[in-house]
Amino acid sequence: xxxxxxxxTFTFQAEVAQILDLMxxxxxxxxxxxxxxxxxxxxxxxxxxxxxxFSRPELADEGERFQIxxxxxxxxxxxxxxxxxxxxxxxxxxxxxxTIAKSGTAEFLKALTGDQRxxxxxxxxxxxxxxxxxxxxxxxxxxxxxxxxxxxxxxRWTSDxxxxxxxxxxxxxxxxxxxxxxxxxxxxxLLNGYRLRTIIQRYSDHISLxxxxxSEDGGGAAKTDADAAGAExxxxxxxxxxxxxGTAVAETTVNRASALWTRPKxxxxxxxxxxxxxxxxxxxxxxxxxxxxxxxxxxxYTMLLFVPSSAPYxxxxxxxxxxVKLHVQRVFILEDTGQLMPRYLRFVRGVIxxxxxxxxxxxxxxxSSRAVDHIRSSAVKKVxxxxxxxxxxxxxxxxxxxxxxxxxxxxxxxxxxxxxxxIAELLRFxxxxxxxxxxxxxxxxYVDRMKEGQDKIYYLLAPTLAAAxxxxxxxxxxxxxxxxxxxxxxxxxxxxxxxxQEFGGKRLQSVAQGVPDFGxxxxxxxxxxxxxxxxxxxxxxxxxxxxxAGQAYDVRVTSRLxxxxxxxxxxxxxxxxxxxxxxxxxxxxxxxxxxxxxxxxLVERLNRRQDDPRLADWAHVLFNQAVLTxxxxxxxxxxxxxxxNDLLVALAGDAPSGEDGPAxxxxxxxxxxxxxxxxxxxxxxx
Length: 686
Ligand SMILES: Nc1ncnc2c1ncn2[C@@H]1O[C@H](COP(=O)(O)OP(=O)(O)OP(=O)(O)O)[C@@H](O)[C@H]1O
Fold this sequence. Notes:
- Pfam families: HATPase_c_3 (PF13589), HSP90 (PF00183).
- The chain is α+β, with helices and mostly antiparallel strands.
- 40% of the residues are buried.
């Protein structure tokens, strides 16, 4: 920091410098948005002043009208945006302009791809509004004075966006902020009243405050005081002051200046809604769906809510913002932090405007307000209905929604008991019936095509979808043609437990827990075969159990498998809450049971050759390969590889003794094993 008279020079926070650089490259194809961003900040600043006045009556002075002013000066090559909002103190300027305090900055920067289009959308989402000025300006001068401070407490911030900015104290009689953009060479097309007006009407028409421009702004013929002052280098502040103070120049309001949600639906076009959505979300893409409702009755409120088409970068950040802004009688009050929208609907963006709350309502008051309870419950119902309609009328769009937000919506099954059934209908899964990994099966679809005699909804919970779809647990179900839902997300455990094991009167049943349960779909012959196998294998089971003591809770014969030799299931028949935890740990259930397939040649051979000196190797390999197909982690991978290699060496049989071949005893054994393996292959082939 260098000090020169009253001027101090500061260095931008590293992230700001990086974002400024990226922005100039990525946003250029969309350069007009700088105006939208600066007008949006001005509008926020006025909203904040209006709000602060409720608690600080001393700020309520002047009686002038709130407005945002846009002006340009062809000769000086400047565009000026001023507002009579809350302004900033020196500390606030340092904190707000020059630093990015938002959580997730690092994640955001990582998410940038270098692709102009997608980066532009991301940058927009991140809301780096003010810095977009540097897309068109080579120098930006911001002059501001906080409401409630003295005229001598004005601050001027100047920067060329290249790493440093300066601050100096200035006299500024009126509160508010003025931003003068000194345009880069080649940006003269923006120095045109008609062009500016068109941009404002395109991007900022929905701003509920008047945006005014000098009346004679068509070709820059009229010179305002601001223009004249701005033309002099270093006279930016004088320009701004004259500007915000109001001059004798005639002004016209160029936007509609009424809160969009207060206007009747019949007057609004799709484009109006989309523009407004972009204003509040910073999302360049149009919303997937929206609802606009005016409710009258015991409580009176309006809601305008949007479902975005893609997830914001911070959807999974713990403290991510909720997207609904509370207004009271059109005055912005606060951003929702969960009072208006539950966490599982945190992707919803929009406005709720209540006529019943006091203007000075605080967050604490919201928590115990009946009106808020009512609004919240109605908002949730309406959003769920909107999603239901989308699913029914536009399955393609709903699939897109599910891809982006399905995992968030699933949280609602555990969090919102009252709406559990509605949410359950919105769930989509991948199943053994799906041709891709896309989640395209609803619980209704599943129940509708259940086999005759089937009385349960089967599911398989695995650490990933890939592990689920390749799991041996599905073999018998596939053979019998019974559909199984494949659940591969951490939140899915809450889904199955949250559904209280039931949907539409059908119980949910894991295919990897307890003894195999095919409901009414197992015939007597199968049951008999299973009993017979258990008897035939009793001795082998005892031996395996002894070898795997401490690893396998139990070893059983199963009818669950057709092609795999073994699998692991959870001993408990019912999902418990701890399962998700374990799935994220080693991936093994608390009481892992090794199930072996009596029809498999390998298992048959073990039963015939229980005296095999390598029985322990076989047992460990069977157990651990079953752990792997579960998508779980082997406790002691080195020992597994050791057992496996011992068997491979024995099978290889022809390894030259004396080099790396087995010792004599094992060599003899290797031969007999290899012979057996041959027999096994034939048996398998037969
Ligand atoms: N005209 C203004 N008057 C008062 N404060 C302002 C003004 N413009 C910007 N600020 C302050 O600077 C901060 C940073 O502005 P910036 O546009 O970069 O991000 P933001 O407005 O916070 O985010 P978003 O664009 O997502 O709304 C604002 O939050 C606000 O505190």
